[in-house]
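Researcher: Let's do a round of design. I'm pasting the structure tokens now; please hold your answer until I've finished.
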């Protein structure tokens, strides 16, 4: 806390933000909305191998202690089943040890914040690859420097998403974006394919949070889908 003669000014709270909802992993430390340190990795390694090392590096680089963190924000769906469990369990364990709050945010909204500087009224469609021709998606509109949600997170065929936005230019973000956009009309920036920790932090800063431990899968795990398909093929099913 500082005093410059105009009264005491509080130091903005420290937020730890993380995403492990897809192949990439991201983490960052923020004083208010200002970044102290950020990490991003898309090296094909599992999040169990990388997330702990990323957090260790962040705190060393930013020269802050875990006990200084006032809030943890983490993507808790939709996305990779294993990735989400790793990220959320790590975030919850960290928050428990640091005795601070832990908030979950939509991975699709976190991705959409990448393009929130696209101009007032811009339409943003966040799309994550759900495999088998399916995507997880949600649409947002840039409004007042922030995002207004236009629909809830949901799963849909990629071709349906492209068809839905056929009459208006769209900024596509997320690792499934390339499957949906029309190259002559829509916008796709390679650097916006992956979720960054900043987007996770901005979701939390805007108050768009939910209980971290309520993971939003939207679809059954692959192992469960395979099991049901096998059962359906059995005689007498």
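Researcher: That's everything. Go ahead.
Model: Designed sequence:
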């Amino acid at each position: 806390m500082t005093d410059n003669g105009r009264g005491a000014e509080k130091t903005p709270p420290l937020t730890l933000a993380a995403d492990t909802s897809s192949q990439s992993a991201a983490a960052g430390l923020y004083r208010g909305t200002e970044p102290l340190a950020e990490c991003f990795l898309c090296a094909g390694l599992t999040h169990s191998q990388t997330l702990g090392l990323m957090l260790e590096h962040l705190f060393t680089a930013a020269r802050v202690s875990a006990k200084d963190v006032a809030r943890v924000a983490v993507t808790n769906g939709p996305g990779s089943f294993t990735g989400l469990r790793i990220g959320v369990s790590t975030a919850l364990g960290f928050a428990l040890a640091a005795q601070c709050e832990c908030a979950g945010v939509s991975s699709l909204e976190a991705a959409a914040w990448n393009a929130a500087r696209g101009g007032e009224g811009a339409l943003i469609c966040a799309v994550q690859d759900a495999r088998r021709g399916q995507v997880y998606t949600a649409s947002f509109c840039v409004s007042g420097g922030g995002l207004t949600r236009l629909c809830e997170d949901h799963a849909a065929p990629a071709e349906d998403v492209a068809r839905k936005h056929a009459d208006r230019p769209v900024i596509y973000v997320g690792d499934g974006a390339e499957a949906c956009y029309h190259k002559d009309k829509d916008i796709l920036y390679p650097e916006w394919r992956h979720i960054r920790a900043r987007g996770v932090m901005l979701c939390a800063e805007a108050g768009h949070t939910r209980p971290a431990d309520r993971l939003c899968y939207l679809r059954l795990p692959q192992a469960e889908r395979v099991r049901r398909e096998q059962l359906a093929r059995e005689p007498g099913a």
